[in-house]
Every structure is written in structure tokens, then in C-alpha cells.
Amino acid sequence: MPPADRPFGEMDSRLLLVVVMFQGALSGCAGTLPRKLTTDDIRVRNFEGNQSRCQVMATHSEPLVTEWSASSKARLEALLNETLADTDRNAIGVQYTGCELRIVDDCRPNAAYDWSKTTLARDTIEINDADELYAKLPLGAATLEGALKRSGRLSVQTIVAGQIKIKRASIDLNGASKDPSCAEATHLIASVSIGAFKMLAGGRGQVSGGAGISGIGSARASSSSEESLVREAGDAHGCNETDEKTPNRNCRSPIQLFLLPIPNRTARATQPPTGIASPPSDKAPKSAIMRTLSYIFGGVGLASLGGGTGSYMVSNGIESKLKDGGYATPQDQTDALGALGNTRTLGVTGLISGGLLLGVAVPLYLMGGK
Q1: Whole-model pTM?
Q2: 141 neighbors 177 (Cβ within 8 angstroms)
Q3: pLDDT tens track for 197-232
């Protein structure tokens, strides 16, 4: 092989290496672009947004339980009945996280509860969007979101006939915090407002005179869309018959809890939906962008280095051929000198610009993290 042609053979192998490196850089770049959100990602991010609402609600210690599951309310009502009927009374421990409330069965420290009849009190809670749902009915917000979206409105009508209250002097909160059976409990129930309620969906809540729905509430809501019953418990007529000694059996559904926090207890965080991995944190998109930019600058930098190297190798080939007399005519020699100047300039420019681009890519890569 003539010496004049050797640089071009070397150029072929080096350019192939540059092409491979450039393709690898572009593949890495594509791999770090933020992926399209899947349905599971959206579910988890909605979950995490709702959890922040729940954490706020966990600081409030007077949750409504009208939206609590029927089985959980029945369990609480049975325990409350036991506390009133048994002389050896015990407090009720719960784990409360803002949007979840669970009775801790083994957490029953010694305490005394009393029944106190109150003046009948009626109330109506209107809910028109998800923010109001999580603020007013956090315990059932996750299960009621669908009903709220379909109907556009939820309404809870309550009537309270009295309270079952713990005697503060009879409870030892510090003792409960040291009791192994209360290890999972975050609060003790201090008192429970009991009575009856109805939860309705739909309607527009235009209030007009008249009796409340099935006797609950002081006014009836008239609207262009029909209201549907979501759930109910208790009977307003039974609440009217409550006496001083005991709540009426048809008016003893738990309506609202008043909780005492157990010292040094923090509720466990609720886990994301089963089988779904949590998406990257808020920091991840920024890292992905920085890494992506580093690959873009790096890829272009490598391409510039490759082009500059190729041009420089071509200029070396032309220069070697000129020295060896490879150009027969003066015109060929003149053309070769012009090509030599151009390729040498392109080569130097490519090497310099490639180096500068790689100088930008490295800090971006480091800022993107590993």
C-alpha cells in the first residue's frame, strides 16, 4: 500500500470507532429521557397527593366517622355498648393516620365511660369537590371519590342525641404509651357523638322550606337532579326518644370521634397501592433532564471530535501526497494545497469545538447524579 494512502486506511477504522461511540451516546440519551407516565404512575402520584392531604388531616383529632365502613362502625358501636354495660370498663385504642382509622383490638387500657344526653343537634355537610371531600370526610375519601365524580355533590345529614365520654381522671395516657398491647395505637377514644345520619349523592342543594329528608335535617334540598342514598344508619325518630340513662337503640350510630393522642406515637405511613412501584421522587425529573443534556452535548462533542479527526487525517494524507510528488500537474498541486488548507481548518475547528462540548457535558453529567 503506498504511503500516501495509509492515512486514509487509518481514517476508516478511526471514523468507525467514532460512529460507534456516537451511536452509544445517542442510545444513552434516549434511555434517560423521561418516560411516558403509565396508568400506575398516575394512580401512585394521585395516591401520594392524597396522602399529603391525609397527613394534614392526621393533625386533627375530631374525625367524622359517618363515611367509615359499616363493619368498622358496627364494631365500634358494639365496643361502646360494652363499655356502658360492663362495670369493668376499658378505653378503646385506635390507629389514626388522617384518612384511615383502625381499632386496635388489644389496646384496652382501664378507663370509665359515661353516657350524656344532649340537646338534639342537626347538621348538613356539603361536599362539591375532592379537596372538600378529603377535608371533611377523610376516612372515606378514597372510596367516595367515584361517587362524587359521578354525582357532582355529596351531602351528609346528621342528628346527634348525646355523647359517650371517657372520664379523664380514669385514663393514664403515659401508661398506654408503655403498654405493649397498645404498640400499634396512636390515640384513645375520648368521646363519641352518637345519633343517626344519611349520606346522599347528587342534587344541587337549593334549600327550601319543609321537613328534612326522612326527618333528618331542618330543611329539604330541592334540585334539578335527583338525590340518591349512599349510606345511612340510625333513625331520627329514635333519637327523639333518647333518655338520660341510655341512648336509644335506634339512635346510637357513631357520628364523630374525639381522640386523645398517646404520647410519643406517630402513625405509620400508608403504603402505595399493592403491586405498584412508587414513581421517581420530585428530584428525578431534574436529574433526568441534566443527564439527558449531558448525553446530547457529549454526543455532539464526540461527533465534532470525530469529524475534526477525520478532516485532520485527510489533510495529513494530502500533505504526504504533495511531499511524495503524487500530484502530476501544477493545477492538481494548486487544488491540493487549497484542499489541504480547508481540511486542516475543519480538523482544528472540529477538535476544538468537540473538546468544548465535552467540557460542558461532563459537569452536566455530574449534576445529574449517578
Answers
A1: 0.56
A2: no
A3: 999 998 764 444 444 444 554 444 444 458 899 989
